[in-house]
Amino acid sequence: MFNDFSYRIFRLFSEDKISLYSSTKDRRPKMELLSFKNACMDKKDEQGNSVQILENITVTINQGDIFAVAGPSGAGKSSMLRLVNRLDDSSCGEILLEGRSLYSWDIGELRDKVGFVFQESSLFPGTVIDNLLYGLRLRGLKRVEEETRALELLKMVGLPEDMLHKSVENLSGGQKQRVNLGRTLALAPEIILMDEPTSALDPAAARLIENLIVQLNRLHGKTILLVSHNLNQIERIASRCAILEAGKIVFSGTREEFFANRELLDRVMNGKGETENA
Predict the structure, then answer these.
(1) Which of 73, 178, 234, 267 has CA 20 to 30 A from 277's CA?
(2) Which phi and psi angles does 144 have, rounded to 5°?
(3) What is the per-residue pLDDT for 24?
(4) Which of 108, 148, 154, 113 has its CA nearest to residue 131?
(5) How confident is the model at residue 29, as a pLDDT?
């Protein structure tokens, strides 16, 4: 059963077959927030040989985008995300954040500014509040402020207050992913990287996460860079899209342009568009 906060969000954004971006189009120019310029990434294989994972990636994510990256398995989508907060480093080209090279940012400052939500929730053993406040406690959050801050985060991700002191082991998959998202939000990132955040969830839980993504974008001004195999999901929430194939960008444009290119979608997405968690 949805709590009241989650239910209101669900009702607001869950109209079937209607994109969450269909009602209005903001034509104001947007600032380039994150830019890949001929970025490459190489890795060593088991034999020690260099293998190119990403090749000449050139794409721009604007402030306020929900930017979806699609493509077949093994195309390099997750690797592209990992470059942005330097879990991996590029081997050529450049990546700019607010016009500055990623390598000019202090790594701690960069990772505060660019949050990462992984494919499956990566919660620590313990309670919900322990997970939500992990990063803030490391940065000196005062004990008297802890519960207030944790309750704010619960509200942002649509979880009830009585969940605050529950063990994470007793949460559903959807609840765990929302706590995971709340922990990322605690450090107030400007960009949120999401690596297939709903792939392990049932359709109802996945739709709630989608609705929260849109709320974070619209109400809290978060820019989202999202990897997804789910074309229905991309159609519902993305404003702009790219397709990665064999480590190369083969398309970048608006959501409308993305879905107008059916021949490319059918070819790249294994001849059918993948629609799990529809």
Answers:
(1) 267
(2) -70, -15
(3) 38
(4) 154
(5) 58
Residue numbers in the chain where pLDDT is lower than 50: 1-26, 272-278
Instruction: With H, G, I as helix, E, B as strand and everything else as coil, classify residue 57.
Output: strand
103-112 burial, b at 16+ Cβ within 10 Å, e below that, comes to eebeeeebbb
Tokens of 258: 């993305």
Question: Are residues 206 and 32 in contact, defined by beta-carbon separation less than 8 angstroms?
Answer: no
pLDDT score at 45: 83
- What CATH number does residue 107 fall under? 3.40.50.300
| Within a domain: 17 | no
Neighbours of 139 (CB within 10 A): 11
In a domain, 257, yes or no: yes
14 domain-assigned: no
Please state the pTM of the whole predicted model. 0.84
Q: CB neighbours of 23 closer than 8 A, spacing ≥ 6?
A: none
CA distance 217 to 64: 7
- Residue 196's domain spans which residues? 33-124+189-268
Measured on CA atoms in the order 7, 11, 12, 13, is the torsion positive or negative? positive
Handedness of CA 233, 238, 244, 245 (dihedral sign): positive
pLDDT of amino acid 270: 64
> What's the pLDDT score for residue 30?
73
Q: In the chain, how many domains are there? A: 1
Residue percentage of the chain with pLDDT more than 70 = 86
Token readout for 182 is: 């709340």
Tokens of 270: 């294994």
Residue 260's identity, in one-letter code, is A
User: Which pair of structure tokens corresponds to residue 175?
Assistant: 């609840």
Q: Which two tokens stand for residue 23?
A: 């009602």
